[in-house]
Amino acid sequence: MSAALAASALLLLAGCAGGTTTEPAPAASASTAPQATASAASGECSYTASGQPAVDVTPPAEGTERPTGTVEATLETSAGAIPMTLTGERTPCTVESFVSLAQQQYFSNTECHRLTTQGIFVLQCGDPTGTGRGGPGYRFDDELDGTETYPAGTVAMANAGPGTNGSQFFLVYADSKLPPNYTVFGSMSPEGLQVVKDIAAAGTAGGSPDGAPATPVTISAVTVG
How many CA atoms lie within 13 A of 60 on its CB side? Predict the structure, then answer.
């Protein structure tokens, strides 16, 4: 694989709107995005209105208790169950938002819209519109410490630049080299990882290295606890 292809795959991941806007992804950039202010250590979270929600939901309310430990969640999909352990202690704002969206059925009956098979190896989900541009109508800041890596099994947030997290997330099915710009908020179980590997083995629709999965993947529900 050429360096250009690897760079293209990376840019596409960064360019897919992390649920912060209904405008085309290039409209969001690091130069216009707000600087991150959330802190995993302090547990301070701010969910800022941004764009039209793909599904009507409300952000977590101020003053609610943040996750303080691990949270078990399962993506129930047409390809099989994907159990995950979410890191509430390390990324309380991200986990709080994900759990809130799951409890509001935001992810129910949505398709994982993007699979990459070269350069980076991820299945991207969390957009009810299936376009890579949909989000919950709010955004929140990154929870990063600069040591993030993306080995197989990682669950992380997709974004369109700093401070643009929304609802889209990606599941890493093979070790991927990415800059530490994407909040890592959990990991898949070995069984869940195998489900994603099987999805990836079928490739993308049309056979390109980046596109919709050849076998459509629908999340029927997300269970928490």
Answer: 26
Q: Which CATH superfamily is domain 3-224 in?
A: Cyclophilin-like (2.40.100.10)
Gap between the Cα atoms of 109 and 102, Å rounded: 12
Q: What are phi and psi of 206, to 5 degrees?
A: 90, -10
Is the CB of residue 5 less than 8 Å from the CB of residue 119?
yes
- Tokens, residue 166: 């929304």
Distance CA 117, CA 122 (A): 7
Half-sphere exposure of 107 (CA within 13 A, CB side): 29
Q: How far is residue 108 CA from its own chain's centroid?
A: 15
Question: What residues does each domain of the chain span?
Answer: 3-224
**pLDDT tens sequence across 16-74:** 443 333 222 222 223 223 333 344 445 589 999 999 999 999 999 887 778 889 999 99
Q: Where are the beta strands (DSSP E) in the chain?
A: 48-49, 70-77, 80-87, 110-111, 114-116, 122-125, 138-139, 154-157, 169-172, 184-188, 210-211, 218-224
CA atoms of 91 and 45, how far apart (whole Å): 10
b/e map 121-156, b = 16+ CB within 10 Å: bbbbbbbbebebbbbbbbbbbbbbeeebebebbbbb
113-132-191-94 Cα dihedral, nearest 10 degrees: -160
